[in-house]
Amino acid sequence: MGANYKITTMLLDQRWNQRPGGNRIPRYAVAHDTGNEGSTAKQNYKYFNSRNLEASAHVFIDDQEILLIIPLSEKAWHVRSQVSDANDWALGVELCHGGNIIWKEAYKRYVWFFAWLCRHYRWIPEHSIKGHFQLDPARRTDPVNAFKKYGVTYQHFLQAVEAELTKMGPVDDEKEQGTLYRVQIGSYRQPENAVEMVKLAKKAGFDAVIIKTK
Ligand SMILES: [Zn+2]
Fold it and tell me: Which structural domain, as residue segments, surrounds residue 214?
């Protein structure tokens, strides 16, 4: 067993441009650093939740916490649209560093979270994690510019994620896939009430079906 960190959810208000919504299963993750030395995960949350911005990311990580500010199923604007499909299909994960942030602790959480993503989505680290510098080499150097200050290379990072993933152990597919958990939201005597509830569920973004039982 490796470390087991907590992922804290503190979502941006949906009224902001930087949380455009959507509902997809992400295909890969992009490793970023904030490029703003000393700014913590919570400070980033506050900044991104205070005004309309043209950029965003799903998760900010510092030496204290792993802070999820946009649901992983939603879109975020973390890479220039012209250079890749990352905004539509990838998760943006930002490393906070510098200032009073303890590098070792922040980096450990960052590595752990990428391993957690790989386990969760059944991704292979070297195929499913891209550095921002790889997607937009003309304009970006993150997260390797931050890594360099602490003697870490991008290759070290991928190896560390791989090692963490191994420590987490295999996903117990039999246990996790053998049972179905069905969510029920109502039972009605009048069919029109059931139809009404399906409409409500669909409007809220959930697929729903009516099953008749005696
Ligand atoms: Zn970046």
Answer: 182-214
Cα 105 to ligand 1 centroid, rounded to whole Å: 20
Distance 45 CA to ligand 1 centre (A): 16
Number of domains into which the chain is organized = 2
Report the predicted TM-score, pTM, of the whole model to 2 decimal places. Answer: 0.81
Using CA atoms, how far apart are residues 119 and 183, in angstroms rounded to an integer?
25
Ligand 1 centroid–CA 44 distance in Å is 14
Burial (CB < 10 A; 0-12, 13-18, 19+), residue 69, is: buried
Average pLDDT of span 174-195: 73
62 and 154 inside one domain: yes
pLDDT level of residue 175 (50, 70, 90 thresholds):
low
Give CA–CA dist 152/187, Å, rounded.
57
Q: Are residues 164 and 210 in the same domain?
A: no
d(CA 142, CA 121): 24
First-to-last alpha carbon distance for the chain, in angstroms, is 48
CA of 142 from ligand 1 middle (Å) equals 5
